[in-house]
Design goal:
The chain is of the alpha/beta class. The protein has one domain: Rossmann fold. About 25% of the residues lie in helices and about 25% in strands. The protein contains 5 helices and 7 strands; from the N terminus they run E-H-E-H-E-E-H-H-E-E-E-H. Strands 1-7-6-2-5-4-3 form a 7-stranded mixed sheet. Strand 6 and strand 7 form a beta hairpin. It is globular and about 40 Å long.
């Protein structure tokens, strides 16, 4: 499986990646985010939400697990599964979101990997300094492979 990289020197660059990725997203899109605490998962989620036209504050659903937002373009489903066991996650009926009419973004996705659809975009965020981050994107299936290839061809990914 191919992987791609993006270097963000600060939050503005994180938002830039979201702005390049968001126009490609459609109904049923699933993005899994992983990274250490403070790596920028929620900041990236907020940037995607802004690009989808979500009005208002988007914050981490750490304690609510799932937050649903209406975007101008698509619904946005923001999940944080850090506090869930695999059994609890399975009982939530996540498939309804994954195969629904919106974009689903799952923070700490590797904790429920067996429940995620086989076709998705996995993004790993790593600290590269105080503000800098390295994003590693791993597409699985179409159209995710096409999106990453297109972003690479346009010079946004390595």
């Amino acid at each position: 499986m191919s992987s791609y990289e993006y270097f963000a020197g600060d939050l503005a660059h994180t938002a830039e990646l979201a702005s390049r990725l968001a126009p490609l997203l459609g109904p049923g899109t699933v993005i899994g985010l992983d990274g250490d605490l403070g790596a920028g998962k929620t900041a990236f989620s907020q940037a995607i939400a802004r690009e989808l036209g979500v009005a208002g504050i988007v914050n981490s659903p750490t304690f609510t697990i799932i937050k649903e937002y209406e975007g101008e373009k698509l619904p946005f489903y923001h999940m944080d599964v850090y506090r869930l066991s695999m059994e609890e996650a399975d009982e939530l009926g996540l498939d309804e979101y994954f195969y629904g009419d919106g974009v689903t973004l799952v923070e700490w996705a590797s904790l429920v990997e067996d429940l995620l659809p086989p076709e998705r975009l996995s993004i790993y965020i790593e600290h590269e300094g105080e503000q800098a981050r390295r994003f590693r994107l791993i597409p699985a299936g179409e159209p995710y492979v096409q999106w990453c290839s297109q972003l690479k061809e346009n010079g946004w990914l390595r």
